[in-house]
Design goal:
single chain, mainly alpha, 5-stranded mixed sheet, 45 helices
Length: about 1000
């Protein structure tokens, strides 16, 4: 076939038109002598062009022809050209599977398995496959026969004779026949073992569900009983040897390759348990020890090989346990754990290509269907199918899922499974990754019938179907709950009230009757509001169920919706702003504090829809807003009402950001640095309280004195306030200092300062819907017995003559927060020599600090409190860490500028940098301090009131755990981790604070 140089042959052009990507190589193959009789046959070229990969198909034909005996080659080629069924089947397989092309090259006569086209050949079952495997009496023969059968399944698949469900069922039937053949070989090899026992093989997973992949582990469980006259002590070891031999026959790699691994790890106790058990042993385990996921796995249990009576007896015995699983005590937390996507184990570079475990993948559909089966199958036997698609259809027919949703999910699942089949078929390797290379994507797309722009069409279709799964797999649970309380058209199926209650209970709702009432109130009617709610609620219900308190989340949503439902922007915000609805669901269901703040002014929900809305606004911006509002107000009361409203709004912003960062969302993972979370909260709440005090001060002064108070006045933050480490439940510890203005009588100045303080405290504690701000001045000189306000000179005189060591220690946290900035700086200049004494502390002062700390530990811990779990005064808690750091500051602050900070974590870092603490000790103290602070914040967020120890209420304790990153069912781990971390911190405190190392 020659052409002039520089010109393409007509064959080259035809090959290009028929989809060949390397026409030159294809032209050379067609020029081979063995293909002389067909090289110009238009039918052959047309058929090659119809395959997934024409180049691969042609190479497969050439290898097959070359492998055939010389006198058989022309028969093959003649049949290929004249018999359309064979042509379509053989070329279809060769164009889709390099591995099956390899098999045909090794066993060229197997192409004749594709010639027949009888009715039984179109839809073979176990019996037909057993017939095909009947002559296989060793491992290699079984592998060859298995591949021959696989060849016929693949041919029907790629030609469209069978759909994906039929193909998966045929693969499962072939696996059944193969297991039986392997067991027969094992029995023949050890007849004495076979005589000792009755052994049944129970298929699990996709094989048990009659929906196997081309390449997949075949999950099994073995059950055995002694044969007549045999002892159990001899029968079980014999059955174990038989089972192990059967597994090796299928799993071992020989010159003919392998079939597939047989995996028995779904058995009781997994790989740590015995391979074979008696039926009574299985039942004893399932009745006492089994976890929810094991009953979920048993949904697909099906006897496939060995003793059929024993296999049926096993399934009959475990089936009732499966359908009672939803009544188990730990079902809800188990379900919540299982429902969370387990993609952390998938490498980041693979998540977007994972067709099984990735977002919108096959596992999403399978899990959703299985969970609904567990919840509703206990009362409806029609749902008890091992097949995902059959079960999905039954759920739709019974009204447990919407028909439209089920149809869309069925379509998406079929597409994704077909993709998975074609990916695996190429090299017969177990993979669930969509390929990255252009040729592989092109072959995959063409195998699915995409021809115009295969790769683009494939990516679009895949993303579209994955998106459907992501959108529907949660909605599948919740949409029928709305239908249960709605008016449906005649003939439409719906969940019964009982079934809806079962589903809500399974999803963690403690009061399903109340939840259904809320759903009815939110979604009933024909208004636009009700229609939008019906769209939002299925997704919101899923987010609520993912929290520690779904009931509270739904109730809070109803209250917010009742308050804002008539405003045009509220539902539009939730519907159109992607993050707003999920953020609201997280906030409403995580505890009491944030919802209480929101319900006092529901319009603050707009914060959740603004991409910048969760970022703290900063002190300068807040102070500008607050002082401007005070300036516009007609009275001190109205001014401070506005100020406290700003504080409430900003507290909601801070709590929401904290909760959302701690929980994470679908688009934004949880914050991994707990220290950063603590710092953000501490800074934000401190700024907020400082601004609130500044606003109250301005309002009090303005009401009586106008713009200028007769004395300069400053508020000094102390304790956590001065340290910028406030939690949600912290009071504001302060000192008040003033300095009379020039020409003002000192007594008049003192009266003015005291009146200002009294008015500020009154205004900030007025009974309103907004949370009060408690100002605590007990750290002042002489404590509660001393004057509330002092002049700067009075402070100087007191500290010079009377200051105790604990007062100097308290001043380590002092920082100006409001009022006259110059006076605040003067106060700091006054106290610096006290808190950072030149040359450090003397031995007497160190002993006094230690004595005070020991006394506080013995006297102030509340009666009955667990010292290992008390965050403030307990072992390794806040007090331990802070007193250790503060002693270092007083000892070395005069020489180490980095220690001159009011913040605990900064001082710890400075002590480490100055080599006053080892990096390990500093890390240990920091970790304990951060954890204790987070626990206190969590308690306030969850309970709506402050607390220094973990809640005793189980649901509240779980909510604290969720905030700290622990999954449901792991509160024990949380408490143990807290004890471990604080125990290590206390060891450092004992050495660094009480020991000689300081």
């Amino acid at each position: 076939m020659t052409t002039l140089p520089g010109r393409r042959s007509s064959t080259f052009t035809r090959l290009l038109r028929h989809g060949f990507t390397d026409p030159s190589a294809a032209e050379r193959l067609l020029d081979l002598p063995d293909l002389t009789s067909v090289r110009s046959d238009p039918v052959l070229l047309e058929a090659l062009g119809a395959t997934a990969d024409p180049d691969l198909a042609l190479r497969g034909v050439v290898r097959l022809v070359e492998a055939e005996e010389a006198d058989e080659r022309q028969i093959l080629l003649d049949t290929l050209v004249t018999a359309k069924p064979l042509r379509d089947r053989l070329l279809g397989v060769l164009g889709a599977s390099e591995a099956l092309g390899d098999h045909l090259a090794r066993h060229p006569r197997d192409w004749q398995a594709l010639v027949t086209y009888e009715a039984t050949d179109l839809h073979p079952g176990v019996a037909e496959f057993e017939h095909e495997l009947a002559g296989a009496d060793d491992q290699d023969a079984l592998r060859v026969a298995y591949r021959r059968c696989l060849l016929s399944i693949a041919a029907r698949d790629v030609c469209g004779t069978t759909d994906v469900a039929q193909t998966a069922a045929e693969l499962a039937d072939l696996a059944t026949a193969t297991l039986r053949a392997a067991l027969a070989i094992a029995r023949t090899a050890t007849p004495e073992d076979a005589a000792q026992c009755r052994l049944a093989v129970i298929a699990m997973g996709k094989c048990g569900g009659h929906e196997l992949n081309y390449v997949s582990d075949v999950d099994v469980i073995f059950v055995a009983e002694p044969a007549d006259g045999a002892e159990e002590s001899a029968a079980i070891p014999a059955a174990t040897r038989l089972a192990a031999h059967m597994m090796r026959i299928c799993s071992d790699t020989t010159v003919e390759g392998t079939i597939w691994p047989v995996d028995a790890n779904l058995r009781p106790e997994g790989r740590n348990g015995p391979l074979v058990r008696t039926l009574s042993s299985h039942l004893a385990y399932y009745q006492r020890w089994a976890k929810t996921w094991e009953f979920q796995a048993l949904l697909k249990a099906r006897p496939v090989a060995g003793d059929p009576a024993l296999g049926a007896e096993y399934v009959d015995a475990v089936s009732p346990l499966v359908w009672q699983a939803a009544d188990r005590e730990n079902f809800v937390p188990d379900v919540q754990k299982m429902r969370r996507r387990v993609v952390d184990t998938i490498p980041v570079d693979r998540v977007d290509r994972e067709i099984k475990l990735g977002p919108g993948g096959l596992r999403d559909v399978e899990f959703a269907v299985q969970l609904l089966q567990l919840v509703h199958g206990r009362n409806d036997t029609a749902l008890r199918s091992g097949s995902t698609l059959e079960a999905l259809g039954a759920l739709a027919r019974g009204g447990y899922v919407g028909r439209v949703d089920a149809a869309q999910l069925d379509d998406a699942y079929r597409f994704l499974r077909t993709m998975e089949h074609r990916i695996q078929l190429y090299r017969l390797r177990r993979t669930h990754l969509v390929p990255e290379d252009e040729p592989d994507l092109r072959r995959l797309a063409r195998s699915l019938g995409m021809r115009t722009d295969p790769v683009t069409e494939l990516n679009q279709a895949w993303k579209r179907h994955a998106s459907v799964v992501r959108r529907l797999h949660e909605k599948l649970f919740y949409r029928p709950l709305l239908d249960a309380v709605a008016q449906l058209a005649p003939g439409e199926s719906r969940l019964s009230a009982k079934a809806a209650a079962h589903r809500l209970e399974a999803l963690g709702y403690e009061d399903p009757a109340a939840a259904l009432r809320h759903l009815e109130a939110l979604s009933s009617g024909v208004s636009r509001k009700a229609a939008i709610q019906r769209t939002l609620l299925p997704v919101l219900l899923g987010w609520f169920a993912d929290s520690a308190d779904p009931d509270a989340g739904l109730l809070g949503f109803r209250k917010v919706s009742d308050a804002l439902g008539k405003t045009p922007w509220y539902l539009r915000l939730l519907r159109d702003e992607g993050a707003a609805a999920e953020n609201l669901a997280r906030v409403l269901s995580a505890g009491r504090l944030a919802p209480d703040l929101l319900l006092r002014a529901p319009e603050a929900v707009t914060i959740l829809g603004d991409p910048q809305g969760l970022k703290p606004r900063g002190r300068d911006a807040l102070e500008q807003e607050v002082l401007a509002a005070v300036g516009r107000s007609g009275s001190a009361e109205s001014a401070v009402a506005v100020v406290r409203g700003v504080r409430r709004r900003e507290l909601f912003r801070t709590t929401s950001a904290d909760l959302i960062s701690s929980y994470g969302t679908e688009d934004s993972p949880a914050e991994q640095d707990p220290g950063a979370l603590v710092d953000r909260v501490g800074t934000a709440v401190t700024d907020l309280n400082a601004v609130t005090i500044a606003g109250a001060l301005r309002a009090a002064v303005r009401a009586e004195w106008g713009d200028t108070l007769p004395t300069r006045f400053a508020v000094i933050g102390m304790g956590r306030f001065g340290g910028q480490e406030l939690g949600y439940g912290s009071d504001a510890d302060v000192l008040f200092v003033h300095a009379p203005r020039e020409g003002v009588d000192e007594q008049e100045a003192a009266r003015a300062a005291n009146r200002v303080v009294a008015e500020m405290r009154r205004l900030l504690q007025l009974p309103t819907a907004d949370p009060p701000l408690i100002i605590d001045a007990d750290l002042r000189p002489e404590g509660k017995s001393g004057p509330l306000v002092r002049t700067l000179k009075s402070y100087e005189a007191y500290y010079r003559r009377w200051a105790l060591v604990w007062e100097s220690q308290a001043l380590l946290r002092a920082q100006p927060m409001a009022g006259d900035a110059d006076l605040g700086r003067d106060f700091i200049e006054l106290i610096d020599p006290l808190r950072y004494p030149p040359e450090g502390l003397g031995e007497d002062a160190v002993r006094e600090i230690r004595r005070l700390k020991a006394r506080m530990e013995s006297e102030r811990l509340p009666r009955g409190a667990d010292p290992t779990l008390h965050t403030k005064l307990g072992r390794g808690g806040l007090s331990d860490v802070e007193w250790t750091v503060q002693l270092l500051q007083m000892q070395h602050g005069w020489a180490e500028p980095g220690l001159r900070t009011t913040r605990t974590r900064e001082a710890l870092a400075a002590a480490c940098a100055a080599e006053l603490l080892s990096a390990e000790d500093a890390q240990t103290l920091d970790e304990a301090w951060v954890l204790a602070t987070r626990v206190r914040n969590a308690v306030m967020l969850v309970r709506g009131r402050p607390g220094d120890t973990f809640p005793s209420n189980p649901r509240e304790l779980t909510a604290v755990g969720r905030y700290l990153g622990y999954e449901p069912g792991h509160v024990g781990d949380m408490l143990e981790d807290y004890r471990r971390i604080t125990r290590r911190a206390r060891a450092v405190v004992d050495e660094r604070f009480y020991g000689a190392a300081v």
